[in-house]
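Input.
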Amino acid sequence: MKDLRIVFMGTPQFAVHCLEEILKAGFNVVGVITAPDKPAGRGRKLQESAVKQFAVENNLRVLQPINLKAEDFLKDLKQLQADVQVVVAFRMLPKLVWSMPAKGTFNLHASLLPQYRGAAPINWAIMNGEKITGVSTFFLDEKIDTGEMILQQEVEITPEENVGELHDKLMHTGARLIIETLKLIEEDKVTTTPQLESSELKEAPKLNRENTKIDWNKNIVEIYNHIRGLNPYPAAWSYLINDGDNLKVKIYDCRMESIKHNFPSGKILIENKILKVAVDGGYIIINEIQLPGKRKMKIKDLLNGFEFGQESKFL
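Output.
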């Protein structure tokens, strides 16, 4: 068992694996900070974060502050007497919190910083067609994702990989990087390097309705990357114009067929239970789709009961 007293901060499944690996490595986690329970689903039942569920199962002390500057929370956090705080997919911390431990607070970020600072680095790396991404650990400072670097590890993005698959790859690599970082901190062997600022930095802003919509006027590779960079979550979307109906649909798995044609972008063609969308440079072949109020479906299943008109198109 290690002597280092660790407070872990995180919320989603990505963070759970990291916390699990910290415990497996024998480190002493004295407390876990995660998001408050939130109403979810049709019944609006209170939903615990993935990190809270795991922490409770492992008999770890859990704090769920609404306000990170609240006196009660700061008092409870101080009583944990952390030597170091580890942050994975949490929220922005006030200086009162990140400056508390003697050995600092470090964050795991799912990109090769300084590239892709922001809320959705895994999605944007694929959406922008990157072939390499990675994970970084860095000490927190006043700004978002700008602190001094500790360690980085590159990860390859394969041409067919979607964001769900890359998420899992980065999650495992990131957990290993956290363990390496903790060992350096424990042995007082940490050396840090400032992040290099550049005019060519790519950002990773929060995903929203506007930046997840498919632009069918882009070229085939850009559209393909956009869709796989949002599959399975939160999913790329488009309007489907079909026999006078205007439906908002989500598009998941797809592939490319590079070929010359004379159809306008967005035109839908159905051939042998295959749905093809004409775009610049060929066709996007959609394998999975979700219509409003329906579950996600394979195209061949959808075509058993759904008719596409001659003039149907995506907008």
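The longest strand covers residues 132-139.
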